[in-house]
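Archive entry. Fields below.
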Amino acid sequence: MKGLNLLVLLIIFLPCLLLKPANASEPIEIGLTLGLTGKYSEMSNIQMKGFKLWEDHVNSKGGILGRKVRLVIYDDKGDPRIAKALYEHLILRDKVDLVFGPYSSEITEAVLPVTEQYGYPVLVAGASSDRLWQKGYEYVFGVYAPASKYAAGFLEMLAMNGYRDIAIVHADDSFSKDVASGAKKWALRFGLNVLLFEGFKKGTKNLDDMAQRVKASRAQVLIVCGHFDEAVNMRLSLKNIKWQPKAYYASVGPVIRKFLDVLKADANYVFSSSQWEHHGSSTPPGCHEFYSSYTKAYKEDPSYHAAVAYAAGQILETALKRSGNLDRNRLRDILSAMDTMTIIGRYGVDRTGVQIKHFNLIIQWQKGKKEIVWPEDLRTAKPVFK
Amino acid sequence: MKVLRNITRSLAFRIIMPVIALVILAGIGLYIFVLSSVSDFTDRHIKDALMGMSREIYNICARNLNELLKTGAASDEKAARIKRGLTIGMIEDFMQQNNLKGIIAEKDNEVLLAYGLSPGLLKIVGKNAEHNTVSSLEYDDKKHYAYRMQFEPWDWQIVFIKDAAEYSSLINNVRLAYMATGAILSITALLILFYLNRSIKYPINKIIASLKAGEQPEYEGIYEFEFLSKSISEMTAERQRLMKQIIEEQKLKGIRVLATGVAHNFNNMLVGVLGYASLISMKLKDAKRGKQTLQGEDIDELLKYTETIESSAQKASGLARDLAGLSRKRMLEKESVMPIDINKLITELQRLLSGTFPKNIEITAKMNDGLPAIKGDIMQLEQALLNIAINSKDAMPDGGKLTMKTFVTDIVNGNSKYHYLKAGKYVAIQISDTGTGMDEATLSHIFEPFFTTKPVDKGTGLGLATVYSIIKAHHGYVIAESIPDKGSTFTIYLPIEEKNPKL
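PREDICTED_STRUCTURE:
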């Protein structure tokens, strides 16, 4: 009789024993890949620091929706195929709750079909190529200002200062091409003359020939659309051919400390675009706290890559709080309509997911210091043309 | 034509047509009033949307110009150029966000922006569109709505277009609603038809089916039909009662005629018998008294008298035999029933008649090949046909035409003027003459025994009564039609049994 009672009790309570309390204690897992080794390693490692800092901060405040956050980060080695396979692994094997986008437009372009297929909303925190939002994807949200607008501020400055003849050269990856075509478009709008518009293979070490052609075009200003390596290599080639344009702009690269470390004095007067810079009068809420905790944690100044990663975390956090759960379709709807502030400024996308609320800054290295030279109201120094 | 008429006259058609007409009318009405008004609404919605967008674009231009004016840099060529460039960028963003394609051109047609469009479109739209109005055009093989506007301070011509497909979901919804309504209408129509069928056609069919089967309708349900059914039932019962009464009266009348005929005929014969018998008696009495001796002549005369008596008595005996034959219910003897080739029978009859009828009567036979065989008593049928033929001959004292026809006919319920004919297949034999014919009154009595129009010594009045009785025994019908001074036609219908072998 006693045995029977026990059996009845077991039958009644067995389901309760088997059912865990709705995984409330498990962390929310967010997966992403970064090119921690390979051609994008500089920026990728900085981004990882930004993401990690956000993870620490959010968990120290008790996580999101009462759950801790755990980032699952893999190294995609800067290879689109590896990245694509890793995102499939994250979604199908690791069964992560959510994902962030990888670094670079090239890698992002490769993984978006996967995230789109499985209905994972992606905050693209490492890419800005316009074409990412021209494929009709419904789950892709930009954090960066789009590539086509990278050089617009610089070109406005040229027009204002009376430099009209420019040359635009670009690497053949999608991001660089989008920056270049955007630059050309804006140049024409501001009444500038594009004397040279040419592409070169991404990864070309020696750009002396290209530098020669730019010189021969009699352009006053050179715009190089590419990443860190192209920015450095072109600067070196200009030195090699012993010619200096009135202004040299490189789309990505000059913003990080390593640019100065590699080029030393040659880094001076180089212009670039930045998604974010920390300076005394930075206005977005929380940016000073981010800056101080970042420098404290990593003993270096954060570049915008770190700040954008951190901002992506903030955006996701806000969206999840509004959603109240991890329903990815609901999250998608919220991200489509949200207009919120992060440490880098405003977030808000248009119907296609392109970032439209955030804007770029133009920086210039002056006497070993990175100065904001545009927009005028935010500038820390006047632009210097040689 | 007749089939069509039959269809249009059917109850089903009369029920279905109004319902279908109603559904079609409702569908057309819905199409005209609902769909067209919704498409008007869509048009207005599209126009409003484009107007709103044009206002926003204008505002972008106006805001930037004002900013330029406020900074006092309006006359600064560089600042103005930058501002215009930024304005173009803003309009481009606006177009992207609102899924527009567009062109901005300066007065001299220098294209400042061609977002998603070829600059040539400016001319196309320019031709078709007035300023600040919405027009539609084909671009890239798709329908687009175009809007053309101007920003005068900078002399800008702005044209933007929007893919009409973006509004197609609205139109599709309307279409879907329309189709759904159509489906609902159709289903409703079917339900109405089903209901009408249940409540009108079904009771009527039930009543008709009973009537066709010769039964009394017994419908119960809908009050009106129940009333109708009961009334028909009562009327049929009344009719049957009257028929029975008429038949009884006819029978009585027949018996009266029969009795009168028998009495008359017997009287005639008995008068002869009695008269001659008394003559003989008178002669013999005289001889006995010795008044008169019976000479050879007298004996001859007496013999003549007895012959006459004998003949009269024989006639009476024959009449008695005929009467017996008529009154006995005619039955076909099993052994005399066999398959009969009616055409062969007619051929033989024709041969017989040609030999015996006066030469001024032309006898023809038109026979339909492939008649099925009829089971019957060939002797009796021959008798019946002969009786009719003799009647025809008597009706043509001055000669004429006697025509015999055979054919197969299919009697369907309701398609014959002789509705009492049971539906089915029959072999018909038609005998027509061009004789004196009969009036209606005569026609209605010809099958009665002893009814005759012939002189007393010519007929017994039993010929056609015999025909009637023979054909009845064969489960057939005999119908007489006649027009005075034109002639008469007798048609005999003999039922074909499925098992009857084909000859």
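CURATOR_NOTE: The interface with chain A takes residues 78-79, 81-82, 84-86, 88-89, 93, 96-99, 112-113 of chain B (CB under 8 Å).
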